[in-house]
Design a protein that fits this description.
about 290 residues, 2 domains, six-stranded mixed sheet
């Protein structure tokens, strides 16, 4: 769906004059340099105005926003030097997003939808496709890891900070996209880690990579053994693991796709636990060649 077609769809709804025009709405979108999920408060307020005027305008304006960003996209806008493999993945993502612009469900196109925020970040080069997951640029490792895992972790993370000379910013942070999980498997993760290593080699200013997730929990070896490879690959590829804490509400995503985990959670027999994994540049580049091929 082209941006002109999106504008025509907006005009057909006869938006009232007191709400922002599509062009004004577009100008309110200022991508954050911190997190893909951080959006300007004025933009969120504008979406609320649209919803109050006519809920259909929320979808129409956000389709236009995504269509415009896609029409302006070029890999050179990404703040990193990209490998050819990642450029090909970007091409595939742009095609996916163009299809989404045309055929995506109404409830997808809202700024309150995390998946849509991720789509906007991909379309502006702030989330880099790696296959199994996406990398956010210029992320910071949380210092709370110093106190979240007891005395031993305090010493381990403290030693890590000393080796890093206190540098915890400028890392890549990995994120999964629920609408793109085709490569979320052992083979896909092996390729993802190898692409990450190549990306680090092409961008010597990057100190490393980190992510936090429930799927690094050692409980999965017993509860969901088919996912045990995620922790195994993490360790084999040179990452350090740090305890974050339990997910007592079930909001981490651990029970979304698994009836087994959901039942155990509801019975009180399983509480997801979040871990953070950190790869330094030398560790990942050194270890990735030894990863098991699936």
């Amino acid at each position: 769906m082209t941006r002109d077609a999106c504008l025509a769809a907006i005009e057909a709804l006869h938006p009232p004059s007191e709400i922002p025009s599509p062009q004004q709405y577009l100008r309110l979108y200022h991508p954050s340099h911190s997190s893909y999920s951080t959006l300007p408060s004025v933009l969120l307020k504008a979406e609320t105005q649209l919803s109050q005027a006519d809920p259909r305008l929320v979808e129409a304006y956000n389709r236009f926003l995504l269509a415009y960003l896609l029409s302006e996209f070029h890999p050179s806008r990404c703040p990193l030097i990209l490998t050819e493999s990642i450029k090909e993945l970007f091409d595939a993502q742009i095609k996916r997003l163009n299809n989404s612009c045309e055929q995506g469900s109404t409830d997808h196109f809202t700024l309150h939808n995390d998946s849509f925020r991720k789509d906007l970040a991909i379309a502006t080069g702030r989330l880099i496709p790696l296959g199994a997951e996406f990398a956010q640029v210029n992320a910071g490792i949380p210092r709370r890891l110093l106190i979240s895992g007891g005395a031993k972790q305090f010493c381990r993370f403290g030693a890590f900070m000393i080796r890093q000379k206190g540098q915890l910013s400028g890392f890549l942070e990995l994120h999964a996209h629920p609408h793109y999980l085709d490569d979320f498997n052992p083979e896909g993760w092996t390729l993802c880690l190898k692409r990450l290593a190549k990306l680090l080699q092409h961008n010597p200013n990057l100190p490393g990579v980190f992510s936090s997730s429930w799927f690094l929990d050692p409980q999965l070896e017993r509860i969901s053994p088919r996912l045990a490879y995620l922790r195994e690959q993490t360790i084999a590829s040179g990452a350090q693991l740090f305890y974050v804490g339990p997910d007592t509400t079930g909001n981490s995503g651990a029970i979304n796709r698994s009836p087994t985990r959901r039942i155990l959670f509801e019975r009180g027999e399983y509480t997801p636990v979040i871990y953070t994994r950190i790869w330094t540049r030398p560790a990942l580049c050194r270890s990735v060649a030894c990863l098991k091929e699936y």
